[in-house]
Structure formats: C-alpha cells, structure tokens
Amino acid sequence: MRPEILAPVGSVEALNAALAAGCDAVYFGLPSFGARAFANNFDLETTKEVIERCHLCGVKVYITMNTILYEDEIEDAYNMAKMVHSFGVDALIIQDLGFIHLLHHRLPNLVLHASTQLSVSNPYQIEQLKKLGVQRVVLARECTKEEIQACVDTGIEVEVFVHGALCICYSGQCYFSSIHYGRSGNRGMCAQPCRMKYTLYEDGNKVDTHGEYVLSPKDLSLIDEVNTLADMGVCSLKIEGRMKSAPYVYESVLQVKKVLENMERNVEDKQNLRVTFNRKYTVGHMYRASGKELMNSKTCNHQGIEIGKVVKVNKNKICIQLSQDLHQNDGIRFERENLGCHVNFMYDKKQKLISFMPKNNTVLIEGPSGLHVGSIVCKTMDSELNKTIAEEIRTSNRQSKVNAIVTCGAVGKPMVMEVYNDSTKISVSTEIDSVQALKRATDEETLNKQFSKTKDSWARFDHIEYHLGKDIYFPISVMNQLRRDALEKMKEACLKQEALVEKEYSYIPQESKTSFDLFEINSMNQKVDDSSCYVSEMFNSDQVLEKSNITRVDGFVNAHLGKGKIVDSLNVSNSYSVAAILEMGYESCVISDECDKYQVEEIMKAFSSRYHFDAPVYKTLYQKQRLMTMKHCPVNTTLKDGKRMNCSLCHHHRYELEGLDGKRVFLLGDKDCHMRLYDVNIMAEIENRKDYESYGIKHFRFVFTDESQEEVKSAFRAYNR
After folding, report:
1. CA 620 – CA 557 distance, rounded (Å)
2. pLDDT tens across 41-62, in order?
3. DSSP H stretches of helix in 496-591
4. Is the pLDDT of residue 668 over 60?
5. Do 379 and 341 touch, CB atoms closer than 8 A?
6. What's residue 530's pLDDT?
C-alpha cells in the first residue's frame, strides 16, 4: 500500500496549499499543548471546520499535543483531547507518557501516535509503548535505514520524516533552550540555541571550526528516497514545517507525490523547492550522513538558490551578473555579508526601470550598503513562483469521488438516487413523480449533464449506474435538486460521528518500592565508597551497574524504555507519567528536570491521593545538567573527518563551546559515541532534601560528569550532613 503524504499546516494558507498539492493527511497544533507554540495554531472552532473539510475530501487529520504536561495542566489537556476526539480527529500525536496513559484508559477509541519527541529508535521501545495503546510511532530522525526496517517489522504503523528541518539533539532530549534561556523545547518554546554561533575550545585554546554554526544541521531531504521507504513498509511520509510558508508546503507535498507516482523530479522542481526554504540538504541519519555531510557550519538560515554575483557597487546601486532570471519583488540575499532585501526597484544598463531581467545579463538594483564585489547572490523568495502557486491553490477544489445508482422504473414513479463510497451509503428521491415524455425523454445523457455540475461541491460522481424506464420525463430543475439533495445527505452521513466512548479512570498500579539512591558516574575515580549504588553509561564494570543510553535497551537503568528497572530521561512531569512507567513494568523513574520544586510536590500529592502510596521516583539533587544528546560530534567534525570512528578525542581533552552571550557548555561522548553537552554550572538542591522527603520522595539521584574525586566526596558530605 502506498504510504500517506503527511503535510504540516501551521496556517489556513498552508492547509490550502497542502490540499491543493495532493496530501493524504495533515497535522497541526492547538492553541495549547503543541510543540510549535509560535505557529498560527488553529482554535477549536477552526479545528472542527478543518477536520470536516479534510474528511470530506478524504484527507486525515492528526493533531499535535506533543508537549510535556505538568500536574495542573493534564485535566485541561484531557478535556481538549476529548473535544477534538468528538470532532472526529483521526489521531493525536503525543509526547507525554502520562497523557498517553490517561487517554488510553479513558478514551479507548481515540487513536494515539507517539511523537518523535519520544525519540524512539528500536523495536523494544515500541513494544513498551504498545502497552500504553500507541498505534503509530513517529521515529527519531536519528534512525538508520536498518533501524527503520526493524521498527516497521514490529507490525506497528511507522511514520518517518522525509523533508524539512533537523534537530541536532535527539528530540525530547534537549534542555539547552530551557536551561540557558528559560524557553523549554519540550513545552513548544525552543529558542533554537543549535542555530546560534559558537566558539570551540580544546583545553582552553580556541579551535578553528571552519564555520561558527557547529550545532546547526542542514535540512533533511529524502524526497528521492520515498519509494525505498514505501517498499520497507513505512506507512506515513512526514514533512516538517508548521512554521513554514504555503509555497514550501505546496512544493514539498507536490514533489513527494510526484516521486511516489514514479516520476523523476527535474531541475526546475528541485530549484522551486529550494527557493521556498533550505539550509542545504542532507540525506540524514537514514544513510548515516555525518560531519560535513550532515552539517552546515557556515550559516543557519535559508539559503535559497544561487542566481549571480555582485560585479559592481556604486553607492546604493548594486550591479549583479545574473545566472538565473530575476523579477521585481523577488527576495535576495548576499552570501558574503549575510544581508538580504526585496528587489523593489531594478534597472537595465540604461538606468531604465524594469520588472524583469533574464539570466546571462547584468542588472542594477537598489539594496543594502556594505556589499563587496564578488559576493554571491541567492534568491530566497521567487515572486513569480509564489504567484503561480497561489493561482494553483485558488483554482483547486479537492473533491471526493462518490458513485451512484439512479433508478426510475416507469412513468408515475419518483427518481431514486443511491450515493455510496467505501464506507457510506444514502438514498434520496425526487419530490415529484415522472410524467410521460411529450418530446425528448429524460435519458442517461441528459442526467449525466446535470449530475456532472459538481464543480463547487465537496464531491463529484466517479461512476453512475442507471436503471430508467421508457419515456419518463423530469424537469431540469428537479434533476439538479436531486443532485444537491443527494450530495448534502451524503455529506451529513460522511461527517456523522460515532458516539464518544468515555470510561472512568480505574487503573491501579502495583506498588513498587525504590530502595536505594542512585549515583551516576563517568569514571571509576568518582566511585568513592562501596555502599552506594553506582551506575554509568560510560563503561562496564562489576562494581558499577550499567545504564543504557538513548538507543540501547540493556542496563539496570535506562535512558529510554529499555529492559532495566529504572527509567531516566523521558520527562516524567506528572503523576500519570509515573503510572505509565509502572504500567510498562518498571519499578521507578527519575522526575524531569523541567519540573520545579512546586511541580514535584504536586506530582507526589496527586499520585499519593489517587493510588494510595508514594510515587516511586527519584529527584536529582546534584548535577551539571545535560543539555543535549547528539549523534553529531562537533569535535570530530572539526579535528578529524566527522565519521566518529576510532576517535576518543573528547576523553583525552576538555572541549567547551562558548556562545556569543558568553555562556559555556562542555562536551563529553558516551561509549557509543553519542556526544553529550553539559552546562558548566552545578545544579544542586541538596539543601531541599528534607522538603522532598516530606513530599514522599525517599531516594535521590546524583550525576557526576567531570568532577574530581574530591568534588564527589564534597557532594557526599553535603548530602549526608
């Protein structure tokens, strides 16, 4: 079966573009609880209208409610989910494990998709999510082709990103924006620190990184590989871009569809897509791209397409030698200076105002000052392409196909029209009976002419079967009314919702007792006694329990949904999330660093009130907070070849990144070469221990990264004081 093309619609304009281009499904957020808080998210009234409009033309609608939820938000989120469920939404895309758990138990017919924010990359994680009722998984963008296939083989529906922006951190594992800028990516408000400039230091010495955007990846584009994914069994091809323009949505959907229909994209196609938005393209982790194949260290913004270079600058007039056509109102950018403008005024070599200049000519424009001869000029907005797309969207009318059987057996009988599709069937009849034809009888040709007048309707007739008696006659107005009545009744039937099934929440978790504190270390030197429970994702040792990292499943502690007993790093931020962890068979979990002291107290109170025992959780009291977990390594990319093979530089030197704001982070890879970024500042809440114990938390977690043995001992002394 051909996979669906899933389009991002952050605005009505983008929705119109997606439908006109031929998408099979759309996704968008609501005013709250979505991971794109700054998109033009639809309100509930508009959402209902969008769902009805899409369903009438055979397009599915998925709504993103993919932020983590705090205790005082989950009831509002539930009510919003219930509302859109009553509208007939095809699925919700969710990150928060507690929200998934709650919806599964209370709204059993609501389809749940696991967001890419859950960073799923292997079959075991999928099998765990199935226990919570998840029916589809949006895979982590870090998955290789082999990992995608393994996930498909579990039998669950698998959705894969095929075009758009890449996060350099595993989605759902990024706290950089939250910790440094007070804007949580897990709450939809990412400040995009990965797109900022950084200086790399090795042992305190500045390193030339050949470009300052060392955390900024190129955009993903697997459009030419979509048939490979289809053959693998991927059910949904997802395009990123709820903050992008309507032309971007139109072109990306159109070109995915073109390739799925076994047509090659030509040069013009590729150029049209690039000019709508690109940071240069990569085939990403599916094909193990790394280093410079993955990253664009020179710039983080839209690149457009190259159209020429500056050959002369005279005050505010810039002379450009064109390699591509240029129109008035195009947007351009000067690569060397990273300056841009709209082409409001352009002139030929005789200083005459013009609106168009073909390629292979020079043109004069008015633009920004400070430009240099030789600077490459890129087109970042094609005004003529935008006009063409706007007209395609304006004249498009996405319709469903329906079939009909039309019957009128004899004079004196009404005409009956049965309209049907794969799932729905209705019947209507004329208000009057047929009369004896005096001249031309009402025949198939006459009826087809009237029944084909569906240009402005939601549906059109694909096939009509006729059973007509001899010499029957109906006025034209009656035939038209029959058509209108039939399509209106069919519309109502297609939009009719089944009764919403809502159950009382009755889940009772089995009580689990956490019996020890956790001390996570990065080196054996940090193990300072034999009585504490030490774990590490850096090395294996008989004296230290293993912590599996973001992609692995073996380990006593898991940074994801592995085979161990304790779950870390999955943003447990409400009491239902703790219940979800227990429902999947774990003993305890670590409360998310996104929770402040008040929110921790609320989790503990709600859990105890509902389940009548204390939540078996850990609260971290000491750490240098992890900001990112990446598959990319800035160190290896800068100093070696970016392949991350036989490197270990980060274990022999101290590497730090410094932003333009002076804030620093340090880098340390794990044993599987995931590069981790840590804040240089210590987050210590040891003084709050008694308060947390009064909430019902019995055990705590400490994380040591680059601390010396004496610093570890100092933290121990403070804890045991």
Report:
1. 14
2. 789 999 999 999 999 999 999 9
3. 575-583
4. yes
5. no
6. 85
